[in-house]
Structures are given as C-alpha cells and as structure tokens.
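User: Predict the full complex structure for these chains.
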Amino acid sequence: MEAVTTGKPTVVDRAMRAPKRVGRQTVRFQDPPVVAAGAAVVGPKEGQGPLGAYFDRVYPDTLLGEQSWERAECRMLVDAVRAAAGKAGLGPADIDLLFAGDLLNQTVTANFAARELDIPFLGIFNACSTLTEGLGLSAMVVDGGYADRVVTAVSSHHDTAERQYRFPTEFGAQKPLTSQWTVTGAAALLVARPELAAGVAGPRITHATFGRVVDMGVKDPFDMGSAMAPAAADTIRRHFEDTGRRPEDYDLVVTGDLAQVGLPIARDLLRRQGLDLADRLADCGLIFFGDDPQVHAGASGAACSGTVLAAYLLPRLREGRYRRILMVSTGALFSKTTYQQGESIPCIAHAVALEAGAP
Amino acid sequence: MEAVTTGKPTVVDRAMRAPKRVGRQTVRFQDPPVVAAGAAVVGPKEGQGPLGAYFDRVYPDTLLGEQSWERAECRMLVDAVRAAAGKAGLGPADIDLLFAGDLLNQTVTANFAARELDIPFLGIFNACSTLTEGLGLSAMVVDGGYADRVVTAVSSHHDTAERQYRFPTEFGAQKPLTSQWTVTGAAALLVARPELAAGVAGPRITHATFGRVVDMGVKDPFDMGSAMAPAAADTIRRHFEDTGRRPEDYDLVVTGDLAQVGLPIARDLLRRQGLDLADRLADCGLIFFGDDPQVHAGASGAACSGTVLAAYLLPRLREGRYRRILMVSTGALFSKTTYQQGESIPCIAHAVALEAGAP
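Assistant: Here is the predicted structure of the two-chain assembly.
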C-alpha cells in the first residue's frame, strides 16, 4: 500500500485502524485533529492576575465602550474568534463551523457573536464545561471529515453572570468564601485537519470523554466547587477506565474551575477510587488569579478554562514543556429558577486529551 | 473488492466515496444514519389538535402531578427519551450520547432530564431549531463512527416559556394575532448506525445543512414568524445550492414554526431567489394545531417541529407516503434581556434531509 512507500497514511489504512469508541464514554481520534490556534481576551482585573502577560488582549474596562455588559461580552467573543482565526492566517469566512456557548440565558452572547461572524453556528451549553464539550464535538466533526476547520468559542463576564445568577454587582452583596469569581473574558480555539495545519506545533486532540450529569445534592449557588467536584471526578475516572491509561501518562490533569473548595474534594474522591493524581491534578480556577483574596475560592466561568487553555497551556504544549494534558472543564447546570424552586445543582464535566507534537 | 461479490460496501470503498462536505454549509453522509425510532409526548391542548391521535402520549394536564411546570417539562423530556429508546427495544443505558436542549434559561429541562437518564450528555441550544441542530450532530457522530446510537431530544412548555419570555400565563395578558402558541411537549429521535437498525424501515439522514444567523431587524417578541422567515429561507436556499438538488427532489420542505405570518414571507423570499417550492413548502407551526383560532398565528416551541417529525412525518416516511423530506427547524435566538435592551432578534435554521427506505 501507498502508506508503506510514502510513510503517510492513506484513506485505505485510516479506515482500517483501531475503533473510534473506547469504553462507554470515550472516543479516540484516528488521525487526531490539531488545535491550530487559540486566543484569549480578558477584562482588566483578569489582566492583572498572574496570567496577565499571556493573554492576547486585556481590555481597559469591562464595558469596552458598549452600552451594556452583555454587549461587551459579545464583543469579547467576536474578538477572540477573529484573533484565533487570524493567528492561522484566516478570517471568519474560512471557518466551516462555529461551536459557541456562554452562561447567559439563551446563550445570547454566542448567538449575537455568530450573527456578526456569519459562520454556520451550532449553539452549545454545558455551563463552564462548554469549552471541552465544544472541543470534543469539534474534534469529531473534523476527524470525521465533515469540516476542515472548526472554532470552539466560550465567554463569560463577571457582571452579566452575577446579575443573572445571584445579585447585580451594583447591589454590592457580600459573598461567602466558598464563592468564585466569574472570569470576564472569552476564548476561541481553532481545530483543524492535520493536513491543513502544516507547520503548527500541535497539540492534537487524541481523545474526548463525554460526561454524565452528576448531582450529589448541593444546593448552594455560592459553592460551585463542592457541587462540581463529583462530576469532575466521575469523568476523570471514566477517562482512565475507558482508555486504560494511568495517571503517569499525563503531565497534568486540569479541571475547569473547582477552585479551593472543589479541588481537594475531587482529589479525595479520585484517591478513594484508586486514582492518586497527586501533583498532576491542577485547576484553572486556582491557576487563573493565583492567591488573590478578592476572588475568594478562585475563578470560574466558561471563559476560565478556555482562557487558561488558550493563553497558558497551549503554548506550553507547543513548546513541549507538557507532553500530555487532560483538560476537564466542569459545569454547574442550574438556573436561577431551579435554585429558587429548591432544586439541587446538577453538574457535568467533559474531558479532552491534548498531546504535544506536530501532525 | 469484496463489495463486488457481496453487494455490501466494505470499509475500503466507504472511505473512497464522495466527499462528506458539499458547498459551504452542507454535509453529506456516506452511509446515511437511520432514524431508528421517534417518540412524541404532549399536553392536553396539543392532544386535542389534529395530530392528537398520533402522539405516543397525551398527558391529562400540564403539571403531570409535579410541583411546577418546569418539573413537568422535565418529566416529558425523560418520558420521550425512554419511549423512543423503548420502541427500539432499548433503554437509556444503551444510548451512547444524548443531545438535548429546550427553551428555558440554561436549558435546565435538558440538564435535569440528563441527570435522570444518566446518558453522556451534550447540551445544545438553538431555540426552536435545536431539533435539527441535534439531528445533524447526531448524524455526524454516528456516521463518523464515534457512537452507535445517539438520541436527540427537545422540549418546550407553554407555561414555562410564556413566563420566561413574555408574561406569566396567570397574568392573562392578551397576545396579538401574530403571536404563536408554544407547544407543551417533548420529542426524542434515536439515530443509529445502519448496521444496527436492521428491520427498521428508515428514514435515513442523508444531508445536514447548518445555518448561519440571520437578523433582519425584527424586534417584536410576539412576531417570531416574521423574525425567523429570512433565516429559514437562507438555509433552504443554501441547501439547494450546496447539493445541486431542485425543489422536485423533495416531497416536502417543512419549516419549524413560521406559522401564518412567517410562512408566506419565507415562500416569497425563496421565490424571489428563484426557488418556487409551491405546495411543497409546509410548516410545523401550521400543521400542529390546524386552524384553532386560540393559538393565533400557529404553534411554536422546540417541541413543535420535534413532535410533528416524530409523530406525524416519521411514520409517513416509513410507509413510503413521502420519499424525501427536508426538515428545517427555525429558531429565534433572543432572550428577555436582549429584548429589554432593545436588540433585534437573531434567527437561525438548520436543515436535515430525510429519505425513505431501509438501510
């Protein structure tokens, strides 16, 4: 076969490779799609954190000259998508499909951004796990041959989120120390067919593990970490079970935004199930703001894991400082209505395995 | 090759077939996935409409014995998924992936249903076009080999939707004649690999055309038909352009819920672009309630096109009464906040081509 002489896989042997499904919740990509570019834009407070220097853009205020925070959030999402495409020398018209979501009712940030970007649009919502939901979907669509270049984009905004989920920030309500600070920002990641990412130093998406909803009965909207930790642990455990991998196969298993309260719970749950991740387990909600006491337990928001991946982890995978990362964004799937109706908070986590190296 | 002797395609010639992308917005399935089962459950008013006899279940009231309409909507979604899986002799544990969405803030109906069903869950939201968004995604995931059986499920509820988008129904606000009645109900469609749907009389999903956001400046939340018609026309036109098909290739092009106001607008827009669909163009929002004056312009809601497809169109495709249908669900992507902030209503439509016949 041609593969023998050229060293490149042909359509024939691609179709004959290992199965694409492993276990109950994981898919494996035969010719892993490349994260060809990523971009992260953030608000001023976020720019002052330890990752400040890595972001593509730090806005001087949270309104961006717009009439409302909602409009500002939309602008950020558009800017992030344009920036990610731009890094690959592309414009929105070169993107085949846009997976986008955010935390606002009816994901309006994504909807209005898609209106401006004019890319065929599939709205997704799994709260702060929307990032890895989108990356998993993007990888399937690209690896399956249905698109060449797909962008996953997520956003959140401290002021739009507080107003919607808890209290308007103008109200000045105090928050307990278990609460987290919703990141103001947006991230976009371009996933491309390996053939179209020549010269890009990776990483590649090798696996996606799609989570189930886990709800241990937590009802406090000011304690998302406790609510989401069991979902994170469930998906991580499933990923290792499904793939047969072991903790030492990863340099980092990084959860979405469990922060100070949630991360120790997830670590403990995993250890009880025989998975000791030790120092390999990290959390974007802790990485984002460092030890800033103003954010209480840490960062959160759909943009939290998105911006950490695009601005901080992606370059380190490219440079080979990390060989393999399991990215596990976590989402709290409640609404103000379900909270007011006394419901507990269902949570979910999706994982994607990122591997350093060019196609 | 083996295909010559057995008549069955092998992996080798499958991979060598026509490309999976056609045009800018359309994907074509090489070995079209089968809609192996569908189920539709509805409220009492819906059960009294002309499609009443076709639904799998008509509940005697809109609360289903639950404490809130939100809980009742969730119960409907769970019932629909169980019913669709049950028709294929399966339970939720046999489903690889659940794409689900609804109209409520943070798609909580889908989230809480996924908690109960315990299926790996990917939340989607494109308002009332969520159905075809999910079917297109399901078909890619199944055709791509990442899952064997995927369920797309959608729901809406008159009372939860009115409270959230306009006025609580208890308030008794009068609505203008351009308004539509949100269907109380849920639908679930099981999409399976052809090899696993032996004995099922189809139909199969041959194409999906993913829409772009179209916004012509309509701001009236009581006139969704006018807002959505241009998006429907855009996606339909794109589908015909991308595939090279002509109107006579379809027995029916059926939009989601344009109803009395929107359907003539879409028909006119298409005609001006040289696409005269004549009697082939129909609308679920008109089919659903017939000429019931209480619903004003017609039906709407994520469950509208979903229940019409599952209960009415699917059996007719199986019986061969329709050979090919283009299903074009339409969504209005606004929120109460964007309306109150004076924004216009961005809209979208996704299309899937359904073809009669067993695998």
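The first strand of chain B starts at residue 21 and ends at 22.
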